[in-house]
Design brief:
This protein is an alpha/beta fold. The protein has one domain (11-258, 310-331): Aldehyde Dehydrogenase, Chain A, domain 1. It has eleven helices and 15 strands. The strands form five sheets. Strands 9, 10, 11, 12, 13 and 14 form a six-stranded mixed beta sheet that branches. Strands 7-8-15 form a three-stranded antiparallel beta sheet, with no helix packed on it. A two-stranded antiparallel ribbon has the order 1-2. It is globular, with a radius of gyration of 20 Å.
């Protein structure tokens, strides 16, 4: 297994497919936005790795779905606990890999990631059994797992925002193929090890590293995915939408345009340093979700912000996709 040491933590740079680390011939360089330091040469997947990952997810789906929310709940609860148990390591690697503040990752982002897994595992227990009465019929709502979900995740909060997708996906009984951001792929690789530690079966969570135009494009165009979730630019979403339309794959987008540049130079030094955790959160929220009319109050390094401006296909993510709901009507 190929690995690198970041912030004193060993991180695999291989893909994670069907419960195993998988190498590929090509790699891409991953550098820290803090100082440009080379962190790792990460495996660059393509169509072959995506095919293997989707096939593994498809084979794992029936057994994972058959567990039901009650059977999946204890496994996902262990997954959430594993995230908290390794919070310091995750926060340290995330800081090196995407330039976000360590204090923000430690006290907000990693705990929120664990909460994402726990929340959706709990929520899945409450979904089925709803009955909607009407004069003519009784409407019974049933939530069924959808199948294989493709999840392409963003650079600006890769670990937490990946759990925002993986949490509802796995809780719903779907299996996942994750394509992490090539600008900050390392903590998603760590997530695979935590999933194994928690007892998530092989094939349920697969991770294919690579460039958006290659691995991301192959995943979006794959004919055997049932759901696709993407967070990122509108231009990239147009390309993904064109791919998923060919197979009529259900797709969810969280989109943005290039946000206006915050007037960082006008902010006093005292204000910039007043709350580092909030600085990290506020700046990243303004970059990741939508075009805001108001600038963030604080800042991180301007060079770190400029260095991570999104450019092209799948240097971002897929928003969470869960399951399909069916409503059946039974006449009185």
């Amino acid at each position: 297994m190929a690995s690198t040491k970041v912030a004193g933590v060993d991180v695999s740079t291989d893909h994670f497919i069907d419960g195993k680390r998988v190498a590929s011939q090509r790699t891409f360089a991953n550098c820290s936005p803090i100082d440009g330091k080379h962190l790792a040469d990460v495996r660059a997947g393509g169509a072959a790795e995506v095919d293997a990952a989707v096939d593994a997810a498809r084979r794992a789906f029936p057994q994972w779905a058959a567990l039901g929310p009650e059977g999946r709940h204890p496994i996902l609860k262990r997954f959430a606990k594993a995230i908290l148990d390794h919070a310091d390591s995750i926060a340290a690697v995330e800081t090196e890999d995407n330039g976000s503040l360590l204090i923000g990752n430690a006290i907000r982002m990693v705990p929120r990631a664990a909460l994402n897994i726990q929340f959706f595992a709990d929520r899945a227990l409450k979904l089925n059994g709803e009955k909607i009465d009407s004069p003519e019929v009784d409407n019974h709502v049933r939530f069924d797992p959808a199948g294989v979900a493709a999840l392409i995740t963003p650079w600006n909060g890769p670990f937490m925002l990946t759990t925002w997708k993986v949490g509802p996906c796995l809780a719903a009984g779907d299996t996942a193929v994750v394509k992490p951001p090539e600008w900050a792929p390392l903590t998603c690789s760590m997530m695979a090890d935590l999933a194994t530690e928690a007892g998530i079966p092989p094939g349920v969570l697969n991770i294919v590293q690579g460039i958006g135009e290659e691995a991301g494009a192959a995943l979006a165009a794959h004919p055997d995915i049932d759901r696709l979730s993407f967070t990122g630019s509108t231009d990239t979403a147009k390309l993904i939408g064109a791919s998923t339309a060919r197979s009529i794959t259900s797709t969810s987008f969280e989109l943005s345009t290039q946000p206006r540049k915050p007037p960082l130079d006008s902010i006093s030094t005292q204000a910039r340093s007043a709350s580092p955790a909030r600085a990290c959160w506020s700046t990243r929220r303004s970059r990741s979700s939508f075009n805001r009319s108001s600038a963030p109050r604080y800042r991180i390094s301007p060079s770190a912000i400029r260095a991570r401006r999104p450019l092209a296909l799948a240097r971002s993510s897929l928003l969470s996709t869960t399951n399909a709901s069916r409503v059946s009507s039974i006449a009185h």
